[in-house]
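Sanity check

After download, print the first record. It should look like this:
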Amino acid sequence: MKEPGTLEDLRDVGAYLQGHFLLTTGRHSDTFFLLARLTERPKRLRPWVETLQENMKNIDAHTIVGPAMGGIIPSYALASLRDDARVVFAEKSETGTMVFRRGFRLERGERVIIVEDAMTTGSSILKVMDAVLRQGAQVSAVGVLVNRSFDGKVPWQGIPFFSVLDVPEIETWMPEDCPLCQQGVPLSVPKE
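Expected structure tokens:
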């Protein structure tokens, strides 16, 4: 087993891919993190989540929220390490916003941590933040297993951000600017 929290660990479980990929954001990249390959192995995932918990141990929140699909398993794993925590997930609505269904509700003023498997632009996390705020709750922190944002910045202010692995050197392109498209390299959609 490779050292947890590293690219080598992700490569070892088949979660770190290289090629030509369509990201959820619509952008293209030569690198893809298929973190379902990590989250399908609880013993391999656990050290990643333990690192995230250690980094967030001083965050006062008892509800963990994950966006469906990628955030469900990591958020559940994190909640299992926190005393008296509960876990809920937000899912995409027909209009593209994130909403709480299945009877999940947040209380006014309730403090939550949002957990996602990977972040590129932060757009999914922003949509979950909006869903949390619509219910009158507040976001105390955001945690991700892999932060692949190109500029290393988050698109929100004033909310602590934690990641296990930062890989900001990975570029993404709009389809019209993608050098791999221009070279005729076939595009893959790894989540299908």
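If your output differs, re-run the checksum step. Summary of this record's structure: Residues 13 and 161 are 26 Å apart (CA to CA).
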